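__Record contents__

***
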Amino acid sequence: MSRFARDRRVFFFEEPVFENTEADLRSSVCPKTGVRVNTPVLPAGLSQREITAHQTKFLKTVVEENGIADHIAWYYTPMALEFSSELRPSLTVYDCMDELSAFAGAPPAMRHNEASLFAQADLIFTGGASLFESKKKQHTSVHLFPSSVDVPHFAQARTARQDPEDQARIPRPRLGYAGVIDERMDLELLRELATQRPEWQIVLLGPVVKIESASLPRNSNIHYLGMKQYADLPAYLAGWDIGMLPFARNESTRFISPTKTPEYLAAGLRVISSPIQDVVKPYGDLGLVEIAGDTSEFIRAAEKLLDSPHSMFRAQVDQFLSKSSWDKTWLEMNKLMENKMALEQLQGAQNSRLAPGANSVLKGVSNV
């Protein structure tokens, strides 16, 4: 969205937060990118109908106060349809990053809303190859855009020297994971790994959501450091010896394409992953990531990586990552959008479409 904001206004609608306060819309403009972030702040205890009513009102207010007429509606979740049905966009994009209906706690209406969004959307983008295969028969214009990476940002880890304070006290070797800790994590794998190799330190960055904290393994060599800012991640990754993707194999991980894979690699880390389809292909097949199906395989892979040099590996990684960037993704997405709008204008659709200069992107976001 920061790249779209270079020549369009971008209004980013976040999931509501609940506080002991009156309903309000918290708005800000990112000074670096110009993206306008809108967060509904709602009192706790509201019904879903009341929450949706507030979101609808806030969205209408933003549209009116900012003089938004011609616009693109960009959805990250089908649930955003429930408060944005009054929009009349020139183009509708569904950026499908996960099979959200398979996540723990997914709303019952998720599948119905996704079917409605597929019917309305002009373009479908998918965040991984397995998700693309799942969705391509549901729409006439589905496009694969695997996770890109901000290489210069994460490459800072290759030269960083100062360990963050809360990580500096942890001995080495360190095996690290950065991301949400939820039902997708293989907690038993972490427990067994920590038990069988007590000299290895397991560092976990990220919030614990949708699972009970009591279910987390509490070995002395497992360290939960909490959520970190994006800007701080390279400093943490610089202090790891191996990056991990210790995912369970269940419905919630069937279609995931972890963004951490290229980020770890850009940071110069060796990587071990569970056999997640979108990691096996291409990363495992190209020898960029070790694939481990159980604890024994994970330990063998870690031992091999801890004893192997980085030099040739990094050259291979850099060659692969040179073909993937957010700029490239943005250019290809933008071209598809402009072509679609130009085609529909040319066809003289009754509901006239806007030419390529659409000046706003309205973005519906949800964390399920």
In short: Residues 180 and 231 are 17 Å apart (CA to CA). The domain at 4-148+325-364 is CATH 3.40.50.2000 (Rossmann fold).
